[in-house]
Write a structure and sequence with these properties.
This protein has eleven helices and ten strands. With about 270 residues, the chain is α/β, with parallel strands linked by helices. The protein binds adenosine-5'-triphosphate. The site of adenosine-5'-triphosphate has 11 residues, from strand 2 and helix 1.
C-alpha cells in the first residue's frame, strides 16, 4: 500500500490547523508524530481517517484520493484505517468482548450491531485477539471495570477486529502511567512487526517516539517541519519542532516510559541543561 499525502490542509476559521502537509509512506512502518500542543497532530490524523474533512489537498492511497470518497467507500476506507484514542472510547457498561466486536461496525449492518447479534466465528475471533493482547481473561467484564492500560488494549483489540491496514493512534498513552504506557506501546510495535500493519501514533513525548518509531514526523504550527529517522532527530531539530524554552523541556520529560530508557533520559536531561 502506497500512501501519498499531498498538501493536506485544514482551516478552522482563521487557524490553519494543518497547513499543506505532504509525506509518502511506501512500505509498512511505525511512524510517530510529535509537536507541541496545538501543532495540528490530531487534526492531521483525523483527516487521514476522514473523521475531519480536509479543506484542501489529496490523500492518495494506491493512487485513489480517499479524501474524496463518500458513503460506503468512505466507510470502507475508515475500516482500513482503525483509530485509537487517548480516552479509549469504549462503551463502559458493555462487556469487553462486545466492545471488541464493535470494531465490525463499519463492515456490517447497524441493526445487528444494535441488537448485539454476532456470529460464533466473530466472537471466537474477538476472543483470539484479546488472547493475543494478554487480556482474554477480562473478556466478560464490563469495560469500565478495567484499568486504563487494559482498556487501551481492548481499544486496540477493537481496532484489530476491523483487520485494518493502518492503525492511527491519537495520544494512545497520554492518560496512562509509565508501566501501562510501555505495555500499550509494546503492543502497537508488535502489531506492526508481526502483522506488517502501518502504525501512525501521535505522541506527546519525544523519548517514546525515538524509542518505538522507525520514522518521526515533527509538526509545528500546522506544518511538517521534520520527517526523518529517530537518529536524524538531533537536539537542534527537536528545538525547532517544539520551539526553544520551557514548553519543550516539559514535553520531553513528562511521561517517560520505564525500562531501558537510559539513552532517552540522558537525552532529556541534556535538553534540560542546554
Ligand atoms: N474543531 C475545531 N474547531 C476549531 N479549531 C480547532 C478544532 N480542532 C482543532 N482546532 C485548532 O487547530 C489547531 C491544531 O489542533 P490539534 O488538536 O490538531 O493539535 P494537536 O497537535 O493535536 O494538539 P494536542 O497535542 O494538544 O492534542 C489548534 O489551534 C486548535 O485549537
Amino acid at each position: 500500500m502506497r500512501i501519498e499525502a499531498q498538501n493536506i490542509t485544514r482551516i478552522f476559521g482563521s487557524t490553519r490547523a494543518v497547513d499543506a502537509a505532504s509525506f509518502t509512506i511506501d512500505r509498512p512502518m511505525m511512524i510517530g508524530i510529535i509537536g507541541s500542543s496545538g501543532a495540528g497532530k490530531s487534526t492531521l490524523l483525523r483527516m487521514l481517517n476522514r473523521l475531519t474533512d480536509a479543506s484542501d489537498g489529496q490523500l492518495l492511497v494506491d493512487g485513489r484520493d480517499v479524501l474524496a470518497l463518500r458513503g460506503g467507500e468512505k466507510r470502507s476506507w475508515q475500516s482500513d484505517c482503525a483509530m485509537i484514542f487517548q480516552q479509549f472510547n469504549l462503551v463502559g457498561r458493555l462487556d469487553v468482548v462486545s466492545n471488541v466486536l464493535h470494531g465490525l461496525l463499519n463492515k456490517r449492518g447497524t441493526l445487528s450491531t444494535l441488537f448485539n447479534i454476532w456470529s460464533r466465528a466473530d466472537i471466537d475471533r474477538a476472543i483470539a485477539i484479546l488472547d493475543r493482547l494478554g487480556i482474554a481473561e477480562q473478556a466478560t467484564k464490563r469495560a469500565e471495570a478495567l484499568s486504563g492500560g487494559q482498556q487501551q488494549r481492548v481499544a486496540i483489540a477493537r481496532a484489530l477486529m476491523q483487520d485494518p491496514k493502518i492503525i492511527l493512534a491519537d495520544e494512545p498513552i497520554a492518560s496512562l502511567d509509565p508501566m501501562n504506557a510501555q505495555v500499550v506501546m509494546d503492543t502497537l510495535r508488535a502489531i506492526h512487526d508481526e502483522d506488517g500493519r502501518t502504525v501512525i501514533c501521535n505522541l506527546h513525548t519525544l523519548d517514546t517516539a525515538r524509542r518505538y518509531c522507525d520514522r518521526v514526523i515533527g509538526m509545528r504550527k500546522g506544518r511538517i517541519v521534520f520527517d526523518g529517522t529517530p537518529e536524524q532527530l538531533t537536539t537542534g531539530v527537536a528545538r525547532d519542532i517544539y520551539g526553544a524554552g520551557v514548553d519543550f523541556s516539559e514535553t520531553a520529560t513528562s511521561t517517560a516510559i520505564g525500562g531501558d530508557t537510559g539513552g532517552d533520559r540522558e537525552y532529556a536531561e541534556q535538553m534540560l541543561t542546554d
